[in-house]
């Protein structure tokens, strides 16, 4: 059967034809008898068939093509195909072998698509098998068991004719106990691009090599001089580590002639990792980052890789242009962020990579465009938009793929990447079989494109934004093979954009209704841009009071760029958490400068001073603040002679400052006052502080009463002084000689003279003489001696 099959394009010899006919005649006798007795028995294969009968659509045996070398064979080469076959059925397969078949030459790009979609369909004919020694046999395939195979065939045996793309099938044929005839039980189709001689017209091919990642850095920074950045996680360290996605992108791209398309946020994030940085922990505490050496190594490798290469810088953070066009333009200030992101891109790349990138290219997600996206994309200075042919469809009935550049008006050029080539590596490339099939399909499409016409054309390949490590490996293998092919030359993106446009190509931008619904569902909503605008408004109000505004403006400005990133597509919850985190952190900084709460203040007298304290818990000082104290009842209480007074405020970092206001009262009672901070442009800053002032006014009557009381106190003091002086004189007289004849004087009062009358309040009734039997006075006589030094005197 397969072993006896003739090589495609040759005729069997007479002896071989005689043997085949004799065998068919001998086999026909028992077959006829069997048909007469068992009408339900399947007929044997006809001798004229070029392939065994097919089983179910996918077959019971899986055929995997893991390698095909060389990818683009030339004259004198030997094609080697290796892989595995796996019995996925429930019955053992016997008398099995793996063989190769070369199908007819494909003539269209859509024909390649059809073969790729039905690559495992065993019912579709696979062409004539190359038999003989170019097969690998298996006596038995047990269910669930995989067996490797490797077949090498000289190119001369493949009977490849004129230049083009050929279908190469790897099939397993055998039989089972239930179906005891030879049949195709598994097949895998791939492609062989064949053009051994140099093409007369070579296709100019541009391959974009994207270096883009997710958002990793928060708006939070340390309070130290270096402003230590805080990362959301350590995922970026994993990507730049040896074997990681971004590590592979750099090491693979270094060997290729490609145009690097870089998000400056990635550069800034890795550069921040080269110094001290922190990572958010599970709780409130941050964890110290320890991947500085990884970051330095990756940046050094990237600097070498892009040296003397074309580099295109996207706006900082890779903002989602479609989301901005569809939902953000109606929110004031949204387009300003795109302009700021574009300006930041040049400085970031120049500082880190020591080169000036191109910034005149915009790249919407998946190259899908409509008029609003074009308008937004060019609003920040870009005059070239990278689109894709499945969005920018041809409707003029062209039989070939036109060149990439399309003038679309207003001095703008749409650089339309080829959709088939750009999406070739979006599948699962982790398995060798997926990688091999993708590479061969990519090369087949490129060759078929080149064979469409003799016109010189410029073709652009714009792959997915963030290819995995395995996808990057497959891309590199395919691009390297293409750059060695006889039909393609490498070209930069700038040169592709300047190429002569095809006048027959579609120049009209697709309508808004043509934008893919699947992409629209992933966009940032209007509420996202409203939150970004609210945060920006708070930042604008905050920065004007700072002595070192750049310490706040720069990290928050870049964080707001990241909040608009295309990397949030399909992750609305993560995007919302990030935006809220930025706003909450800013609110905390704003609240670090505030007024201290005051309790009720009592005011006695017509005028007094009221202090109000401003606290600054920031590291840096604040300036240009104005503190206004307002009386809600100026009739009762005036501030500096009016309803309010304003005073400038300057507070050093980590300090508080009291500001004093002069007040005057006109009436008793409570008056409410409000303290409020303002920015120089008259906008309120922070929350106001409201407190009551209790006014106790001193009237003329009260002053008379107080004056009378003071006078009485003075008179009382004089009286006390007189009494003390008299008492001291009596004591002195009693101590003189003769004072001891007290009994004679008592018996003869007249001899002693008249006794003085007691002053009222001396302890006995007025005018009464003190008798020996009278009780002692309640209070001892006051001493006239000076007060001791420790005696307290109430005044």
TrEMBL record:
Residues 493-513, 729-795 are annotated as: Disordered. It comes from the Bacteria. Keywords: Membrane, Transmembrane, Transmembrane helix. Coiled coil: none annotated. The chain crosses the membrane at residues 698-718. Residues 733-747 have a biased composition (Acidic residues). Residues 494-505 have a biased composition (Low complexity). InterPro entries: DUF6049, Ig-like_fold, TonB_box_CS. This is DUF6049 family protein. It comes from Streptomyces thermospinosisporus. The lineage of its organism: Bacteria, Bacillati, Actinomycetota, Actinomycetes, Kitasatosporales.
